[in-house]
Each structure stands twice: as C-alpha cells, then as structure tokens.
C-alpha cells in the first residue's frame, strides 16, 4: 500500500506527521472523499471544486491546481492498483508551535490515501439499511468539509450500538443529513424530497449529481426540509455519499419504511447513478 504525504508517495509506516500539526491539535483542516469505480475517480471535478471552497472558507491557500490534484490522485489510485473504493485527501494548516492564531509562512500538510472497498454490489445496496435519528450537535458551518468530526463519530457510534448503519441528524424536528451522507425521502406521490443547501448541511457531491439525474429522468423534486415524522411515513428513503453512491433505507428508528424493502424509485436512481459513474458523459 502506498499513501501520499506532502509531495511524496510512501509506504504508510514512513508517512509521519509531527505532533504539532494543526490538524492533530485543532482539527484545523478540511478534507474530501472521492469514490473510485473501474479505477476512475467519480465526479472528481466537483470534489476538487468543493475542496477549493472549503479551503477558501477557512483561509488556507490551495497547495495544488485542479490539474495537479487530479494527476496526484490518479497516480495514487494507479500505484495502489485500486479499481473500486474510496480516495481520501486532507489539507491542514500545517505544523507550528501550538497557538490559536494562524502561523505565518507555514506550508499546509497534504495527505492522501485510498481504501479498496465494494461500492457497486454490496449487501447494503441490495437489501437496504437501518438508520436511527440523533440530535444534530454540530457547529454552524456544516457546509465546510471540516476534519472536525467528533459529533459524527458519536452519532454514528450511537447508531451502530442501536443496530443501525447510519445516523440521521435532527435539528428543530427536521432531518439535516446523515452522519456521513445526504438524506432523502420519497413521498407516496413519488416525488423526491431533499433539504436545500445552506450552512446546515454539507453540499454533497453525490446529492448534486443525483438531483441532476432525477431531473433528467423526469422525477419530481422537492427541495425542502422534512421532519422525522414525514420520514417515518415516507414511501421510500435513501442516502447518498461518494463512498456508497445510493443506498436504500428500509427502517428509521425501528419503523419500517414502505414495505421494508428497497423502493422502486430508489433502485432506479441507484441504477442511474451507477451508470453515470461507469460511463461519465463526455462534456
Ligand atoms: N453529509 C456529510 C455530513 C458527509 O460527511 C458526507 C460525506 O462524507 C455527505 C453528506 C455526502 O457527501 P458526498 O456525496 O460529497 O460524499
């Protein structure tokens, strides 16, 4: 296995970051996660665009251009011989004596690694998963893909201990999003409901692509907030993320959704997304 650290491709045991790294001390950094299928990065331009935005919002200079990032990502995938899985990349404000203020003249710390895993054909995708709702305990800038993920670590662990595979976070009675995914329901009338973009959620890249695919497919789309009760009563529910694509949800807080099996609209969207990921349209 080969990982990336500050310009070098190294075995993981040689890729060491000093304890004074601000990512380690302050969670002072941002990240991206990109899906890989057939050895190709899925929606990589959109991920790099979101990375640029996250870096700008926390005032770290982007260490690479979009084409440099792409070349490094592709080289890492190639060196690991990965055909299906996940590429993680992270940029922190760098290494400096511990002090809250931005250090001057410090280079950011850039790390990347890959994780081989099945995406296209998994039990979760075939049979659906259970989610449980938990309070959303995060900060006010959830639109930034910050490496500070303690609230999600606790939310997802709570979900696991309750026998579920994902946590749906709730604020003021409305679902915000999953611990590491965007949240969708399908109404009995067959329209898709998804929360509009704001500082309350991460602008999911898979969400964005899925919305485009559903529009092209003529599925009615409602971009609005939905409550936990509406989700319990939905015909279907699903989540999206770069590392899982589209995953059906068959129970929420132990209540069966629809007939307790992945719904037809969810299955169709998963199919459309998979097709797009495998045969990206030539722009
Ligand atoms: N929401 C949160 C909080 C996430 O952490 C993620 C992915 O990690 C998503 C949504 C899904 O975003 P994407 O489709 O870009 O992976």
UniProtKB/TrEMBL annotation:
InterPro entries: Aminotrans_IV, Aminotransferase-like, BCAT-like_C, BCAT-like_N, Class-IV_PLP-Dep_Aminotrnsfr. SUPFAM superfamilies: D-aminoacid aminotransferase-like PLP-dependent enzymes (SSF56752). Its cofactor is pyridoxal 5'-phosphate. Signal peptide: none annotated. One of its GO terms (molecular function) is L-isoleucine-2-oxoglutarate transaminase activity. Acts on leucine, isoleucine and valine. NCBIfam families: PRK06680.1. This is Probable branched-chain-amino-acid aminotransferase. It comes from Microvirga thermotolerans.
């Amino acid at each position: 296995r080969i990982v990336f650290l500050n310009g070098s491709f190294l075995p993981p045991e040689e890729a060491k970051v000093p304890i004074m790294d601000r990512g380690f001390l302050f969670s002072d950094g941002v990240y991206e996660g990109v899906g890989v299928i057939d050895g190709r990065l899925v929606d990589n331009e959109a991920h790099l665009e979101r990375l640029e935005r996250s870096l700008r919002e926390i005032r770290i200079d982007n260490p690479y251009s979009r084409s440099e990032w792409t070349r490094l990502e592709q080289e890492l995938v190639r060196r690991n011989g990965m055909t299906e899985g996940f590429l993680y990349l992270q940029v922190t404000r760098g290494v400096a004596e511990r002090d809250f203020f931005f250090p001057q003249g410090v280079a950011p710390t850039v790390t990347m690694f890959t994780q081989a895993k099945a995406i296209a054909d998994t039990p979760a995708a075939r049979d659906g998963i259970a989610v449980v709702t938990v309070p959303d305990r995060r900060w006010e800038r959830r639109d930034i893909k910050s490496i500070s993920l303690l609230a999600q670590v606790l939310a997802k662990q709570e979900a696991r201990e309750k026998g579920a595979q994902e946590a749906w976070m709730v604020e003021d009675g409305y679902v915000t999003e999953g611990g590491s995914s965007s949240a969708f329901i399908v109404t009995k009338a067959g329209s898709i409901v998804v929360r509009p973009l704001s500082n309350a959620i991460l602008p999911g890249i898979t969400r964005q692509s899925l919305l485009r695919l559903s529009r092209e497919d003529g599925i009615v789309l409602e971009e609005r907030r939905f409550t936990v009760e509406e989700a319990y009563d939905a015909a279907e529910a699903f989540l999206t993320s770069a590392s899982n694509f589209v995953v059906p949800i068959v129970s929420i807080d132990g209540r069966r959704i629809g007939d307790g099996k992945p719904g037809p609209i969810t299955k169709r969207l998963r199919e459309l997304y998979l097709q797009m990921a495998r045969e990206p349209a030539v722009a």
